[in-house]
Amino acid sequence: MILKLWFSIGTGFGLTALIGVTWILIWQLFLSSDARLSNLFSSLLFGFSPSLRISMSDAGYLFISTLVSVSVHEFGHAIALASEGIQLEYIAVFIAVLFPGALVAFDYDLLQALPRLTSLRVYCAGIWHNAVFCALCGLLLFLQPVILFPFYMHAESPLVLEVASPLSEFLSPGDAIASLDGAAIHSVQNWMEMTALLDKKILQNSSDSRYFEGFGAVDSRKGYCVPNALLEDGKNVLLAKNRSVCPEDFTAFVKIYCFDPSKSVDMDGEDVDLGRKENALCLNTKDIVNLEKCDGRGKVKKNGSSCMCSEDESCLSPVQFPDLMWIEITYSRLYSRECLQLRSSLLDSNTSDAVQQTCGGTFIFVGDMISMVHSVQLTEYQPRWGIFLSKYLPNKLEKSLICTFHISLALALLNSLPVYFLDGESILEVALSHFTSLSSRKTRKIHQVCVVGGSLVSVLAFLRMTFINFF
């Protein structure tokens, strides 16, 4: 009784999916002018997008996800047949035009002799089980931080899994990124959003920056108190192809003048000396990174001046170009021996700052922001017991669930279509016989027209998706 109720719900879902998916496919193919929306639906329907680049590791995830999803599909048909007392003959799994498919062989004559609703329960069972399995994968993805909580910390600082040039000189697998240009980073999304914001800022040359020929942009909110003695060791900035050039490991800096309220100076006026070429010097980034910060117009001292440096220091800001940005990254070596010993000795849960100061470091990246972002693979999960738990497990689990979610959804949607050799063909045939009073001859004609039309529309949708992405 419970199984019959379960598969009756699946019948309602299968019929709804048949009508809904067919209508949406026709609408996006012939009526919709939104190419992005059409491409998105086609990608969900067919399970992939031609613009997607699949690596060998991704191919492994796809294979396993397809195998699991098809098995779930066949399990649904098999249980439905068994609940109706129909014996299975064999189960077949196939690939049709690169898409996964499945087939259950049974006594067709026996199924035809049973009531039409029984046949619908059997034919809709595979689609129904794929949809339920898809929802289960989505629920597990949502609850993954809670499920892994006893073993992994989540959304504290993104952990480095793999790192390539240009960050390989500074970061290693197992390091945690704590901040980016002074902004705390708690998740991979924070990392992506912050880098995009910084890149957009330098490209737009915002009102808080100054741009002058050959010297790029100077952000007055990014300054360092440089001792005047160190300035004497600086190298002169050269110009090549209308932009500043410094020796290797050196970066161009420009002096930022303090704001004194006793003098009537407009910080946004044209007479400001910010960024004058004669005040530019090439300095070693390693000598600058650990110096005190200064802010040309942010913080104000008690005397009303914005000078954050002492009298024997000068506030200098790095010169930046869209492909040569100055980014300050703070990280922690969480699983080094010293850091593990410190963490085990500190029982207070609010000791992350102390651990970061002792085990961490700060470096300056000068280069292209986009290359930097794509050079590091991050995860939001940190093992609670260091090396005893794999730092790769949460990402692998998450990727497997995401891939299985999409494949199972694609199987449910694809099999809902009235297309030859798919479940939608049989569902439509039985539904026409059960819900209409047409003669058998008219029912067969309508069924044939719908299946031929559904097959053509599906092929056109596939070709359109391929054409949009490839051409």
Automatic annotation (TrEMBL):
Membrane topology: Multi-pass membrane protein
GO CC, any one term: endomembrane system
Keywords, alphabetical: Membrane, Transmembrane, Transmembrane helix
Primary localization: membrane
Domain Peptidase M50: 62-447
GO molecular function: metalloendopeptidase activity
Native species: Gossypium tomentosum
One record GO biological process: membrane protein intracellular domain proteolysis
Domain of life: Eukaryota
TM region(s), chain numbering: 6-30, 61-81, 88-106, 126-152, 446-467
Subcellular location: Endomembrane system
The protein's name: Endopeptidase S2P
